[in-house]
Amino acid sequence: MTIVVGYTTKPEGRAALARAILEAQTHSEDMLVLNVSAGEAYADPLLATEDELDEVRGELARAGVEGQVRQLVRGKDVADELLAITGELGASLLVIGLRKRSPVGKLVLGSNAQKILLSVDVPVLAVKA
To answer: Residue 5 in contact with residue 32, Cβ under 8 Å?
Structure first.
């Protein structure tokens, strides 16, 4: 089985990666790390550089976790990309990061997180930074 993790270089993405590695080690599963951008901005802060993706590959290797790192910029919504890949792989778990929110903001999840939680057919582990 495969664990899919939505990765960004922000603290919530790093936390999701760390937890996904732990889950993969615990359950002897492979991982797919996805860094996704809809490509709507000239410089998307969620899009990792090649050096950052190489660092993720190194983390997987050091942890002894078999896995792939993919970057998708196909003009699709981030949540839609994660949902599609998770379904295609028949993933056992999807790990996403959540950013900290104000007390009022806690009433509403981010749009990507909400869409994923309401639509995915596999367990989701949502990790705070």
So the answer is: yes
What's the burial of 64, exposed, middle or buried (CB within 10 Å: 0-12/13-18/19+)?
Answer: exposed
**Amino acid sitting at position 30:** D
Task: Identify whether the C-beta of residue 67 lies closer than 8 Å to the C-beta of residue 24.
Answer: yes
Q: Of 22, 9, 11, 2, which is closest to residue 99 (Cα–Cα)?
A: 11
Q: DSSP letter for 49, please.
A: P
1-26 tens-digit pLDDT: 899 999 998 999 999 999 999 999 99
The pTM of the full predicted model, rounded to 2 decimals, is 0.85
Q: What is the pLDDT of residues 78-96, one digit of tens each?
A: 888 999 999 999 999 999 9
Q: What CA–CA distance (Å, rounded) separates 114 from 49?
A: 27
